[in-house]
Amino acid sequence: MGMDFSTLRTLISRYCVGEENWVDSRTVYIGHKEPPPGTEAFIQQRFPDNRIVSCKYTFWNFIPKNMFEQFRRVANFYFLVIFLVQLIIDTPTSPITSGLPLFFVITVTAIKQGYEDWLRHKADKAVNECPVQVVQNGKIICKQSRRLRVGDVVLVKEDETFPCDLILLSSSRDDGTCYVTTASLDGESSHKTYYAVQDTKAFTTEEEVSCIHATIECEQPQPDLYKFVGRINVYMNNEPVARPLGSENLLLRGATLKNTEHIYAVAIYTGMETKMALNYQSKSQKRSAVEKSMNAYLVVYLCILISKAVINTGLKYLWQSDPNRDEPWYNERTDTERQRHILIRAFTDFLAFMVLFNYIIPVSMYVTVEMQKFLGSYFIMWDDEMLDEELGERAVVNTSDLNEELGQVEYVFTDKTGTLTENNMEFIECCVDGHVYIPHAICNGQVMPGASSIDMIDTSPGPDAREREELFFRALCLCHTVQVKEEETVDGIKHGIHQGKSSSFYISSSPDEVALVEGMKRLGFTYLRLKDGQMEILNRDDEVERFELLEVLTFDSVRRRMSVIVRAGSGEMYLFCKGADSSIFPRVIKGKVEQVKARVELNAVEGLRTLCVAYRPLSPEQYQQVCHQLSGAKLALQDRDKQLAEAYDIIERDLILLGATAVEDRLQEKAADTIESLHQAGMKVWVLTGDKMETAAATCYASKLFRRSTQILELTTKRTEEQSLHDVLFDLSRTVLRHYGGMSRDNSSSLSGDCTDFGLIIDGATLSAVMRPGQEDSNSGNYKEIFLEICRNCSAVLCCRMAPLQKAQIVKMIKASKEHPITLAVGDGANDVSMILEAHVGIGIMGKEGRQAVRNSDYAIPKFKHLKKMLLVHGHYYYIRISELVQYFFYKNVVFMFPQFIYQFFCGFSQQPLYDTAYLTLYNISFTSLPILLYSLMEQHINMDILKKDPSLYKDIAKNCLLRWPIFIYWTVLGVYDAMVMFFGAYFLFDNTSFTSNGQLMTTNTQMMFGNWTFGTLVFTVLVFTVTFKLVLDTHYWTWINHFVIWGSLVFFVVFSLLWGGIIWPFLNYQRMYYVFMQMLSSGPAWLSIILLITVCLLPDVVKKVIWRALWPTTTEKIQILPVKSSEGQSCVCGLIVCVR
Amino acid sequence: MMASSYNAKDEDGHHSGSVSHGGAGTAKSKKPDNTAFKQQRLPAWQPILTAGTVLPAFFVIGLIFIPIGIGLYVTSNNIKEFEIDYTGVNVDSPCYTCANNFSWNSTTSCSCTVNFTLEQPFENNVYMYYGLSNFYQNHRRYVKSRDDRQLNGDATALKDPSNDCEPYRKIGVETIAPCGAIANSLFNDSLELYYVEPSGALNAVPLAKKGIAWWTDRNVKFRNPAGVDLPTAFKGTAKPVNWRKPVYELDPSDPDNNGFINEDFIVWMRTAALPTFRKLYRIIHKNQSSTSTLPSGRYVLNITYNYPVLSFDGRKRMILSTISWMGGKNPFLGIAYITVGSICFFLGVVLLIIHHKYDTRSNSADIPN
């Protein structure tokens, strides 16, 4: 009973939560203690318990709910309706014919989903019943995880996973920090540090913790993993002290505690309200272009189906108006039928015709397409050429729905860092006041101190300069968020780093920072660790310097800089700031700006990533002010981010420039080759990067995105400052259009005149100006159009200084442009996720910046170079395969159903099926299903090496060209033609002549007449053979599997027919097929006409193919003949291979 | 000019069967066969349809089809066929009275006589058919109106046949055997053929009733219900509404040809595919003497007119035909073969021209590559 009540309560509370969500913040009472009277009202809010429900079904609701889910799909619903109609009315075909396939599909899906759900149930149970240690009244109590409630204080030990979202109260470490890995949440395996609130970190035992008297106010749960705002009120002697809470205090469910003995924390979000659970929601489904055309065809066929049924019903009643035709003496209706109203009869007839022709939209097409996609995607995963030996990673397919879309890509949007480049940063040089320091690579573990080759730009550095130099080094050692990954013992750290041994190393979410800190190590300043808020640095004289870390103004992509405020041992306070040159220079008031700027620009042109470093000494008063501003912003519950940004803006000013650093990010292997191939394949490649223009442009040149011949158009803030955006845009579009206008005019004279192509560079600021919806200026609405027009004519576009959201905006803009091109986005970092989700196809690179891109992508590849094979080979194949699959499926069902339609004209529109029930059912399921499925898995119309070598072949299938209407109509017309040939061929053989079997050959019997079932069987035999041979004609790649399946399925048809007609099947109440097939085969004319009809059916297609190939060959077709011509060369290669072996 | 080729990698892989291809697979593969499959590098035959490859096929098809067609056509033309319509639509036709005075209730049967002349003698076995026009034996309601269990001698189905037989399932309490519309409308005209001797005497032509149905139908698919004799076996059932005799008295002359295994009945039960159809009625076996089976001359066809077709504008015919190895008279197949063969031949010529003209062009274009 109690159990029931608790479930009831949860149910009620879940419903109530709906209302409470409207309250924008929640109050949590730590340990469920009421706040001291007078401070605030104690409102008991109801929160859900900590039960995780990831399963969809329960034992009881599985069948109804699963059925409901499945029949919500249009296709399934359609077949269900057909099935029900068959059950209700007197239909020509038995309900089994559509019920059996539907039942099969539904059952298989249900079993699969049921199994998955059972696994989820098990997982849920394991999670929900896992024991959790809770502090109650100063004692530790073990609870099941699902019984955990908001406000409970939880004890978590090392290597345990957090049971819900928790606010850290105290940790076993003295400094109130703990280390956490979020590998299971976002794939980042680095340890992150979380902090306890100053006022609670001292409570380190159960007894103490249960004395904490505090309330937490925080926002209602949000799915964003990295955002959290809240406030804790700690009551010290009934005096509330408010402290800000941020994401650095919030321990997320699913993360694991590391390197910390134990922590105490309070639950604030439980169960389905945890951030992990809120992130369960799957991303929106992407649909491929092929699927869209398939649906369009489906609509066409549905119209054909309905019109067929309407026509036949109409004709039926016209024909039946003569009562002797309607009800001749030999064929009377039953009384109940006679009494039915004519309208009802007509409607039933309409439905019966629908049922009769419903096979034109086969349930098996959906199954086959799904299977093709699912099985086909394994070829991507198995591909050894996309295996990265270093990482040991293969390509990953997250959605197989988009395989064919890979063959349709027109725009490629790629990130630069980590995608085009390796994101393997190497510190190259630094420049302090114009002195350039280049650390030698560490040879034999020996670090050359700062004396390493110094390029003297200025005169000899005086003592002042030396001081600045050291300040610069210290700044770089301090201004970062790098952690030291510790090996087992704490003592080892210092030792390890000092010795330069690999026993410990730096980890950071930004590889730049690691490169910088490591670079500093080579220049003599080693960052040791952060301990008790003290950063320890080992300077050149092997002395440990300690700086107290006061504040960290974290990096964000809008500000593009970060700062730290530290207090040196001597008590001076500094603000060190490092960031992109564009965000530092405007804030600098002193320093050798000119020299540094020159060096930065020089480095940027070489493709190096540059950062500027500046500092600002703070007086205690200034620090107080800073503290005040920061804490004010941090305590805000609303718009905290905005307030923080404002505070940062105020603090990070009046800087003194120290110098700049340069870090190299090498191009990924074969990136240039890949980009070139994509270009040749007719794709437009856009680089979207947050980097600065010069660096990005240099990378673009290196990766051959821009060639020397490329005419670069700039659309940057620099230009728009000189001219108005309007003028610049019109200027550029004129340049582009003039060129192309000229091109088209003398197009005929010279095809090779295509020497100048355009490259566009645009930066984030200008882009947002272009994209801004025009309110005041009527012209501004056109900017987007003009911009798109320019882009359309540029082979390469570089967008620099992009915010993550802008990347997605660009993709969206291109997607929405009037040609609706297919877009693909490649990226490796969290900042690319939005664009990966936005593009038609999102590809994640398994890079160094965590796994977020991979998790959100449709496909993930280890390296950028694998994109080439992915698109040019796999994409091409999948597109060819699936388009043939779709066209063929419609074709084979037209051929299947059209004779039956014509037959209605000869059987008094009585819905008499032409084929036997078994044939109707099995045609799509077994006689003709496997060959096409196999074709759609194995077909290779061109050798894959040629596809890779000649990317221009990709253009042959661009714009969904194999699924355009003309081709679809060709297939349909071919289907109708074949159907006519089959039907009328058989008709003329039966009509008016004695189409008879020559019985003497087989038995002593003589002349025997054939009936309607023989007629149908003859048509059906021709049908199965024709349809299979059509595929034979289309197959270009015959492995033994193809041979086996194609010939096997024909043999199966014959064997099945022999068997089906060979026995009186006791479970059937009709024996209409008994010996029909054998009798047919024992007749000479039947053989002759089968051969004749198959030939006539295939003839036009063969002729069309051959003539088209001879007269208007596509590039593909030209290439296909080539290997023949160079067969001698190939046999040579062959011999070679044999020799080698 | 062969446009199909084995891909270079096949030669070594196809026979040994366990060798993987390409640089990628070889090094790491543990299961080489599997890897070749996984890498999509299975050895394969890669044929391509070009004018060059298809050309010979077209000529070959043409060369094969045309002779076959001519053979079929000649054979079909050699078949002798005679057809006579005895419906009695016109006033001057002999069966006009019978056709127009037809009543289901009349107990006496009406008969009429049709005279005709065979210009040429019919050699070998001659097959006698009745043909019906505008008779929708393929109507859905009609096709399914039968019970194969009952016809197979199933005792329960005999007493309780399938509902498909409605409205020809029961009369009162008695079930109809055989039930259903098909059985009910059994063709029951009887035809007798007489040769008019030059002397004027009528000489009955012997008509064989057996051997007109499929052997499997007569022996397996159709069976009489078990019983001491047929009348007891069918006890408790009624004859179909339109029948004059119960099913066990269909052929008084031959006790083995009664019940469900009556061959006329079996032939009728195989529903025709099209509304105009003919069904085998009798066989006139070749006589041992050297004279032809049906010598040329005058004949008399004696019809017992029981089967009304005028109400639905139908026609009844009697057909006499000889057969050949390819069955009955059927010029269509021969003509079709000749036509298709000629088209293939013609297309072959067209393709030859195309091939000659365009392939050289593409050849020269490809050479630089």
UniProtKB/TrEMBL annotation, chain A:
SUPFAM superfamilies: Calcium ATPase, transduction domain A (SSF81653), Calcium ATPase, transmembrane domain M (SSF81665), HAD-like (SSF56784), Metal cation-transporting ATPase, ATP-binding domain N (SSF81660). Pfam families: Cation_ATPase, E1-E2_ATPase, PhoLip_ATPase_C, PhoLip_ATPase_N. Residues 854-1114 form the P-type ATPase C-terminal domain. Its cofactor is Mg(2+). Residues 131-204 form the P-type ATPase A domain. It comes from the Eukaryota. One of its GO terms (biological process) is positive regulation of myotube differentiation. The keyword Membrane applies. Its EC number is 7.6.2.1. It is found in: Cell membrane; Early endosome; Endoplasmic reticulum membrane; Membrane. The active site is at residue 415. CDD domains: P-type_ATPase_APLT_Dnf-like. It is a multi-pass membrane protein. ATP binds at residues 415-417, 513, 555, 578, 609, 689-691, 801, 807, 831-832. InterPro entries: ATPase_P-typ_cyto_dom_N (IPR023299), ATPase_P-typ_P_site (IPR018303), ATPase_P-typ_TM_dom_sf (IPR023298), ATPase_P-typ_transduc_dom_A_sf (IPR008250), ATPase_P-type_domA (IPR059000), HAD-like_sf (IPR036412), HAD_sf (IPR023214), P-type_ATPase_IV (IPR006539). One of its GO terms (cellular component) is plasma membrane. Residues 44-98 form the P-type ATPase N-terminal domain. Keywords: ATP-binding, Cell membrane, Endoplasmic reticulum, Endosome, Lipid transport, Magnesium, Membrane, Metal-binding, Nucleotide-binding, Phosphoprotein, Translocase, Transmembrane, Transmembrane helix, Transport. GO terms for molecular function: ATP binding; ATP hydrolysis activity; ATPase-coupled intramembrane lipid transporter activity; magnesium ion binding. The chain crosses the membrane at residues 71-89, 296-319, 350-369, 918-938, 968-990, 1010-1032, 1044-1068, 1074-1099. Mg(2+) binds at residues 415, 417, 828, 832. PROSITE patterns: ATPASE_E1_E2. Belongs to the cation transport ATPase (P-type) (TC 3.A.3) family. Type IV subfamily. Component of a P4-ATPase flippase complex which consists of a catalytic alpha subunit ATP11A and an accessory beta subunit TMEM30A. This is Phospholipid-transporting ATPase. It comes from Nothobranchius furzeri. The lineage of its organism: Eukaryota, Metazoa, Chordata, Craniata, Vertebrata. The gene is ATP11A.
From TrEMBL, chain B:
It is a multi-pass membrane protein. The keyword Ribonucleoprotein does not apply. The chain crosses the membrane at residues 48-74, 332-354. Keywords: Cell membrane, Cytoplasmic vesicle, Disulfide bond, Glycoprotein, Golgi apparatus, Lipid transport, Membrane, Transmembrane, Transmembrane helix, Transport. Residues 1-33 are annotated as: Disordered. GO terms for cellular component: apical plasma membrane; endoplasmic reticulum; Golgi apparatus; transport vesicle membrane. One of its GO terms (biological process) is phospholipid translocation. It comes from the Eukaryota. The keyword Membrane applies. It is found in: Apical cell membrane; Cytoplasmic vesicle, Secretory vesicle membrane; Golgi apparatus; Membrane. PANTHER family: CELL CYCLE CONTROL PROTEIN 50, CELL CYCLE CONTROL PROTEIN 50A. Belongs to the CDC50/LEM3 family. This is Cell cycle control protein. It comes from Nothobranchius furzeri. The lineage of its organism: Eukaryota, Metazoa, Chordata, Craniata, Vertebrata.
